[in-house]
Amino acid sequence: MRSKLFVPGSRPELFAKALASDADALSFDLEDSVAPERKASARSELRAFLLSEGLRSSGKTIIVRVNPADTPHFIEDLAAVVQAGLHMVNLPKPDSADEVRAAAQAVEQARKANAVAAPVGLLVNVETPRALRLAGELATAHEMVAGLQLGLGDLFEPLGIARYDPAAVRQAMFAVRMAAGEAGVFAYDAAFADIRNEEGFVAEARQARDLGFIGKSCIHPRQIALANAAFRPDDEEIAQALRIVAAARTAQAEGVGAFVVDGRMIDAPFVRRAEEVVALATRLGLTPR
């Protein structure tokens, strides 16, 4: 899920175009991008699209950002979008573990009501000061939590923090990544609103990748290729990971716990990381047959 394209739920004319894009995931939005008077129609349009055969066979990860749990739209959103084509519900602005647990229960109720066999995960946003402070509690609140997603605009703007200050961004990223790591879930990077600033987008995406995030949100199709490239392991990284995995097999057969590859001491944490790189490269078709 290197790239996740944001698609307003009130723009059904964009649904098929988004599905045909190179984004690994699509995030349909029923929250901020949809005016109050269009919530019901957006919900209905999105439900129909989620039930379409083309979406199910697309191979993309499908996510819907619903309205916050404390709004009257939340339960209606879940009833409409928790369908067989959905992989994750994106929960905006949660401020407590209890809220995450209640949301998980509501998703489960909608899943059963709609006879959806496959599990549906929760992608929990971290976009308030309280959520950032309690990120570890949010991540470990329920087994349905699949990942934490950083929301820098909502987090920084009300506090007067410069959205594009690399030091401030890095601190928020690090806190979210540690919380996700404690829970054993993924961390996902925020959107980058300055569409024309491709250099800034790439720099922020690379910083996120260096901190262990798996991908970045895209608010415009032109950002998809940038995110896919930023979160793609390069050829040397793949080659080294393959060497480490091969050496680990040999070491295990010989009963050796730590060994040297390319002049570096390698033990279990490095092997696990190499295995993750190889798995990603394999999914992307970048490893030799």
The spatial strand order of the largest sheet comes to 7-6-5-4-3-2-1-8
Beta strand count: 10
Strand content: 15-25%
The top level CATH class name of the largest domain: Alpha Beta
* CA-based gyration radius: 20 Å
CATH architecture name of the largest domain: Alpha-Beta Barrel
> Which residue ranges are poorly predicted, with pLDDT under 50 across at least 5 consecutive positions?
none
Cα separation of the termini: 23 Å
> CATH superfamily of the largest domain, called what?
Phosphoenolpyruvate-binding domains
Name some characteristics of this structure.
15% strand; TIM Barrel; 8-stranded parallel beta sheet; globular; 10 strands; alpha/beta; 46% helix
